[in-house]
Every structure is written in C-alpha cells, then in structure tokens.
C-alpha cells in the first residue's frame, strides 16, 4: 500500500495533491465524531421543523418554498439529477481525486450535517480508485461537479476504474456497498461548497511549485549559453530588492552556475545582458511570491467551511446558518493571479528560446541546426513556444470578473472559482511544454558551443539527464517527440536534489 494520509483537523493543498496522485485517505476518530455530531443537529432541525435552506426548503430562487418532511429525501435525490448537467470531456483521474479529497475534507469540519455513512462511501470510492465520471465544463462554481459525484452514491451515474466504465450501482457492488438513500440536506451538501475549486487549485499550486525549480534550471542553462555579464546574480546587489522569491531564485542561479568555466570565459564582454537573461531573479522571483500567496489562500480555504447552510449548536439547541460560504471569490482571485504568473514564466522562457535559436544574438549556429541550409533545427519549435505563450495570454483573462446572473436573480453575482482553477491548470500545461522546449534547446546549444570550456557541475548534470532522454537533434526525427519525452522527465523528476545544494 502507498502513502496513507489521515484527516484529523484539516488537509493542506500539499495533502490534496498527494491524494490526487494516489495516496490513500483515512478519517480520524475525531473527524468521524464531528461528522456524527453535525448530523445529529440536522436531525434535530428536521424533528423540530426549524426552517433551514435546502433542509426543508427548496434551493436557489425556490428558497422560500417549504418542503414537507416526507418529501425531504426526494429533494436530496432530485437535486443530484437536476444539477447533473455538466458537459464536455470528463475530468482526468488526478483532477477527480483532488475534488473528492477536498469534498471529504469539507464534510469533516463537522458543520455540513451529512451522515458519516455518506462520507465513508466517498472515502471507499476514492481509495479504490473507483472514480465518478465528472464532465469538465458547465459549472460557474461548484454544482455540476458535485452532482456527478453524488449520483454514484445513489447507484446512478458512471464510474471509471482501471480504464473501464461502470454504472454507479455496479461500482458500489464491486466495493460490497449498496446505493445510499439520501436524507434531508444531503443532496445539497453533496453539490454545494467549493471542493471542485479547492481541489483543482491544490493541483495548480502543487504543479507550479514543481515547475518553478525547473524554470530556474532551464534559465541557468540558457544563461550559460548566452550570458556575458560579470556576476549578474551576486547576493549583495540582489539583496537590495525586497522579495523572498527573488532572493531564492538568485541563490538557485548562483548554485546552478557555480564553477562554470564556460560562463567565466564570456564574463565581462557585456555591460548588461538582455532582460530575459538579466531579470530572471526578478521575474521568476515574482512568480514564486505569487505562488506563496496563492498557496496561503488555498490552504485557508481548505481550513474553512465552504458550504451553505452550515449547522452548529447541539441536538438540544440546533442552529442553522444561511450565509454565502459557498462563494469562492478568494479562490477565483488567487487562481487568476497564479494563472497570470505562470503565463509570465512561460513568456520569459520563450524569449530565451528565441535568443538561443536566433543567430543575430546567440553566437551559435542558426536555429541550432547541425548543418547549414538543409536543416531547420529548432526554427519551428520556437514557433510552437510562441503559440503556447499566445494561448496563455488569452487564457490569462480573469475568470473571477466574468460575472453572470443565475437562479432568477437569487444568485446574481458569480465569481467563477472553478473555471479560474481549470484555466490555471491549462496554462501550467502549456508552461510545462515551453520549459521542455527551452531545456531541449539549451542542451542543443551546449553541444554546438565553439568553446570546449566546462559547464557548471549542476548544469552539466541536467544536460546529461536530457541527453540520456533524447540525443542530439539532426532533423532526423519529429522534434515534438523529443519535447514530449523531456516533458515527461520534467513532470516526473525534480530539477535537482537537495544534496546538490540549491
């Protein structure tokens, strides 16, 4: 069995990302008791006929329609069917697991009022990798994703397991479980809150945290090929700019480039390098600062109750609170900010790629081609990087400002947290490809250097890892296959190990 993560109080974005990649999830006894206590409060609200949104009333614009006790279970079931209206390709395995983990974490705070049996069924599906098919599009916030998950619990909907599609009833039967009959509030709890946004946002911060190190590594390799300024990343002058991210990038670059005879040979030939080289600490550092801020927002959201209504008190004194905790404004803004930062990281990488392939500024063979005239080398893969950067620019338009009016003016402002997280992930996917192109181009440039001076120990190590993955390029194979192999290297390994000291 792989890693087991126990949910006691809260899950962090790091834990959500680990579960998304396959770690198992367990509920602590304390978390289980919180869930039981909250359900007892809902039962008391129902017994006493105390009005609560989605418990004994309709939802959305129907919030003032009172639902009789015998119809409350029907309301829960009907909500899942009516809200299962997502469209488009299903989410992937990792994204689905992230959302389910965030959903379970929200229920475990003990303010939702869903039965422990329902939560345990979700845990069983997650740990068995029996994953609901969730259409990826059609949600302004949260409702459609949660409904697709909820359908499986009642024996409807579809699941994917080991590449095979099963009905919800078949999936539960495989696990030795029977379809649940939902009770009051449970339908609303399953579709409400921000788990789809927090789950996807957890993936976004985790992926960017991995890619910023690779961005520093690829920039160091490009700088070693192209840089000519004496000591541009020295600690003292960089310390004059107050940014934790900038200082970290400066430290990384100094370590990555330490002892480079190749760089020493060209040092001092230029007063100032171009900004795509000289400003790496400033741009990459700003991205790291943005990442730290976004992670803090996501972790705060995971520590928060985000569904509506919340219940509190005790069975003797039950209370229900209608508020707007399901609105993910903070997540939407954070993901918009992170998306722009990731797009900027790709943009500066593409500018360095252009300098590597451009013979007017590189001092290297034109387009890093191994021959003259009959080979195009890396000419067109730079077009690919430019196209992805342009796509990122379009995707970076803020989702949180999209607005919209739904539910007959009852829900008349929308903050689009889930779409914001989804497009941040799309930008990160493009960033990964652009960095793979830069790494491949920088390795080709190293091979084509006229100087035989030695590279820095760390850039030499990265160069060797690239060459173990793909050989020198001679226009003898589709270049996109090489890029895909480097993407896999980048996705599955760290840029450097802690023992290397960066």
From TrEMBL:
<dbReference type="InterPro" id="IPR001106">
    <property type="entry name" value="Aromatic_Lyase"/>
</dbReference>
<keyword id="KW-0456">Lyase</keyword>
<dbReference type="InterPro" id="IPR008948">
    <property type="entry name" value="L-Aspartase-like"/>
</dbReference>
<protein>
    <submittedName>
        <fullName>Histidine ammonia-lyase</fullName>
        <ecNumber>4.3.1.3</ecNumber>
    </submittedName>
</protein>
<dbReference type="Pfam" id="PF00221">
    <property type="entry name" value="Lyase_aromatic"/>
</dbReference>
<dbReference type="InterPro" id="IPR024083">
    <property type="entry name" value="Fumarase/histidase_N"/>
</dbReference>
<dbReference type="GO" id="GO:0004397">
    <property type="term" value="F:histidine ammonia-lyase activity"/>
</dbReference>
